[in-house]
Amino acid sequence: MQGKRAAESRIELTRLMNVMDANMMGNVHGGIIMKLCDETGAMAAIRHAQHPVVTVAVDSMHFHSPVRIGDLLRVSAEVTWVGRTSLETRVVAASENVLTGETNHANTAYFVYVALDQHGRPTPVPPLSVETDEEKRRFEAGAARQEVRLQARD
Fold first, then answer.
1. How many domains is the chain built from?
2. H/E element holding 152?
3. Which of 71, 89, 112, 146 fits as disulfide partner to 41, beta carbons 3.0 to 4.6 Å?
4. CA-CA distances (angstroms) from residue 103 to 15, 67, 107?
5. Which helix (H) or strand (E) element contains residue 56?
6. Which strand (E) or helix (H) includes residue 106?
7. How many C-beta atoms lie closer than 10 Å to residue 118's C-beta?
8. 79 with 9: CB under 8 angstroms?
9. Domain that holds residue 64
10. pTM check: above 0.85
11. Cα(49)–Cα(56) distance, integer angstroms
């Protein structure tokens, strides 16, 4: 199976946050942000695997700054590590106040997905071709995170 570049999986979702997304403080619910992060990460994984995927793990999500009603939420994702049937994506969420242009980092998290065949069983995915030093560093860090995840399962 031929490898695929990380750049081929990159995707960005942009969505205007509205009152339906708000909590009592006037900020966007963390759960809304988590859902959008999962969807964006899954799309990057699907682009790489060219198969449906299911979420199997999410490394911790720390909310660094609130996302407010009226902000644009930009969620970007790309594949950082690939195993035999599983893939890790790095997902970054940032908000933008469109009136002032101010942007804030909301969070960064790593999501792990498993690719599925037409019968709903895990299926092999193409290897990840790392091209830059940063991609190599992210791949090695992803492999280390996966090792920790597997050890924690036992």
1. 1
2. helix 133-153
3. 89
4. 14, 10, 12
5. strand 53-58
6. strand 103-115
7. 8
8. yes
9. 4-153
10. yes
11. 15
Instruction: Name the CA radius of gyration of the chain, rounded.
Output: 16
- And the tokens for 27? 């900020």
**15 vs 81: CA distance, rounded Å:** 27
Question: What tokens does 133 get?
Answer: 């030093």
Give the pair of three-digit tokens for residue 5: 């570049």
Per the CB < 8 A criterion, the answer to whether 109 and 88 are in contact is: no
Please give the Cα distance from 9 to 7 (Å, whole number). 5
What is the per-residue pLDDT across 118-149, written as a single tens digit (0 to 9) for each?
999 999 999 999 999 999 999 999 999 999 99
SS3 content of the chain, % helix, strand, coil (to 5): 30, 35, 30
Q: What is the CATH number for 118? A: 3.10.129.10
- Find how far residue 144's CA is from the centre of its chain: 17
